[in-house]
From TrEMBL:
Single annotated GO MF: acyltransferase activity, transferring groups other than amino-acyl groups
Residue span, N-acetyltransferase domain: 59-192
PROSITE patterns reported for this sequence: GNAT
InterPro entries: Acyl_CoA_acyltransferase (IPR016181), GNAT_dom (IPR000182)
Protein name, as recorded: N-acetyltransferase domain-containing protein
Organism: Symbiochloris irregularis
A Pfam family recorded for this sequence: Acetyltransf_7
Amino acid sequence: MAMSAYSAGTASRAAKLSGIAVSCKRPLRPYPESCQFGAFRKRCSDRRLKVSAQSADSLKFRRGSQADASSIFQMTLKESMNPLGLKPERFVIAEDEAGHKPSTLGFGQLQSHGDTGSDSFLELRTLIVDPAHRGKGIGTKLVKELLRMAEGNAVWLTTLENSIPFYAPHGFVEQALDQQIPKSLWFEAAAGTVVARIVAKQRLVVLKREMDSRL
C-alpha cells in the first residue's frame, strides 16, 4: 500500500492501515568493508545490479486461484490488514520462478463494486509484498499489472497520506471527501480517519485514477 523516510516501525504501522504493505524508501545497506575503494567497490556494485536483473527476469504474474486462498489470508492477517473480501480469483500473484518451485513475492486485488451504472467502480486493494522482497520495485509492478487489468476504467483506492507519492506516478490523484466519491469508499474513509490519526498520525485519503480512453 515512494513513501517518506521515517522510522521503519512507524512506516510498517502506517502501511498496514493504508491497505498497502510495501516497503518505504530505506537506505541501501552499506557496502562491505572490502568494497569501499576503487575496483572493489565497482565489482560489488556490478554484483548488486546483476542480482537485481536476475530477480526482475524471474518475476512473473498470474491470476489467483483457490489454491492461493490460505496464503493470501495468512499474509493479510500478518500485515494486520482487513481480511474480508479476499476472493483469490480477484488477485494478481507475483511469483519468483528462479527456483525449482515458484515462490509468492506479493499480490494485490482489483475489486469491482456494483453491477452497472453510476454506483459501479473498481477499487485497488490488499497490495502486499513479502517483507523479504520489499524495496525491489515489486509493489510498483503489481500496481501496473492491476491497472492493465482495469482496461482503462477509472480506479479508486483508500490509503494513508504518506502513500500518495507511491501512487502519483501511476496517475492517482487525491479526491476531496466532498466530491462525488463512491458511498462505500466515503464511509470507509470517514471511519478510518479517526484510527489513522491516532495510530499513524496521518490522514486517510481517497485517490482516483481517471478513465484512460486510450486503453
